[in-house]
């Protein structure tokens, strides 16, 4: 394990983390806007979203030297928006859903989101779940590149919050 990887820790978010997570999400919302993306430009996610993630044990943070540098919601429940897809999922069994991946401004461009996804894969396999499903806006180029690099396969479109979104799945072996 490299020195860089040793400093990271992926853990469930706690209510005490909520303010920092919200700051990171606000930074990510701003970056999406600066990139010309329409994703997250309508009041979602918001502080209540984060609080609900944490209370439902969906919220996870990636820390570096005790500082939160990234966030993701990792959901073990069925995602209702994924029940109807214009296309076809790779599998029909149990899966984990990933939503709200965000990286702090100071850590942006350092591979943090990629590291988060790799940690989520470890969480999934530790729970005997071998499928991860995720969606993103058609104009979220950084996330589309990460999903491609990590081997996620495009499966079609789902509708989430009244918008068409690109849907991806990765099967873990």
Automatic annotation (TrEMBL):
InterPro entries: Acyl_CoA_acyltransferase (IPR016181), GNAT_dom (IPR000182). It comes from the Bacteria. Residues 8-173 form the N-acetyltransferase domain. Signal peptide: none annotated. Keywords: Transferase. CDD domains: NAT_SF. One of its GO terms (molecular function) is acyltransferase activity, transferring groups other than amino-acyl groups. SUPFAM superfamilies: Acyl-CoA N-acyltransferases (Nat). This is GNAT family N-acetyltransferase.
